[in-house]
AIPR protein (Phascolarctobacterium faecium), 392 residues
Amino acid sequence: MAKLVFTADQFKKMVDPVDERSKHIRYVCYANAASIPQDIENWMETNPREQKMTTNVAKTISSSLQENANFHELNRGILLSAESVEYDNQKKQVTIVLSDPSVHGNIDGGHTLRAILEAKKSGVVFNDRYVFMEIFTGLDTPVELAAARNTSVQVDLKSIEELKDSFKIIKECFSDLPFASRIAYKMNEHYNDPSIEPIDVREIITILNMFNQAIYPIRNNDGRLADLQPVQCYTGKEASLKRFLNLGKERREMIITNMRPIIKDIFNLWDDIECNFATMATLSGKRYGTRKYARFADNNVVGRSSFYQKDLFYIVPKGLLYPIAGSFRSLVVVSDNVYSWVKPPKEVWNSIGSQLASIVLDEKAETPETIAKNSNLWSNLFKEVFIFGHSM
């Protein structure tokens, strides 16, 4: 719990005009920017996105704060949720109590709040700067208000779903993987830290979707191999997220729990393909390094692998990675709702990786984007892995 105190003018309490019995109470005021306590930065979880202070919007807010005495008129202000609010008329002090980090804290105006706190740290906030402050008490959840208010830069779906705790099962199942702390569950998360290369949670979900038998079953109801290939996992991250969410909370959590035995293998496989595709291409008689998108530079490191951040001497675009990795879903076996492999994917990759690389590089299309959109390629790779994996 935190008790935060700041000075303010023009403090007003506003009761719901439609339902006076509503427990939602709104307080508005002009808060003195210099008096806003630094501890409020510990209460930012209720904002659906992280604040990226290097954007033009953030820089404009910071500049306006320093240069304009009428900042309180030019800026849209800060929206908070709190457990309680009190105002001392004589001292002109507002006291807010915050107790639940999932409900109480900053909901909108996060860039404005960050700009003020950063300016305070630098000692450049003037005592005559005010900012419009809006505080709600009685909220059960900040989700609806956050979605409605965060419109200056549209909040993406994953950020709203993070507020709903929709990714709890993902966090649990990935907690022991070395890249878990790099997964970004909302907008701009980790982007202010140059030492972290964020992984969009939608990327995690689209890769999982390829192996999810509720979304892309290996066989049709009649027992034949399914024709539908997970091309959309490459072409539409947002659409893939929606498909995952549309399963419903209970069902998707059950499926991800059932998939847990193979999750680590899936991302190890992805890393293997990314790190060793060029070697497999060479074994098949193909010269991968001559392709522009490989970015080969005389055995110098040109990048790092997506998840385990190993040194790469060739770049393997996602337009190649998705169809190849996706083909290994043909090895999935589900018994008593628990996922396993008919053969270990690493073993299969080591055995026929050169054949898979050859199939991909024989494509006439020159760009990875075009290659990845070819459903026939996905089907050919899928069948190649299926035949090898299910042979004695």
About this structure: The chain is about 40% helix and 15% strand. Residues 162-390 form one domain.
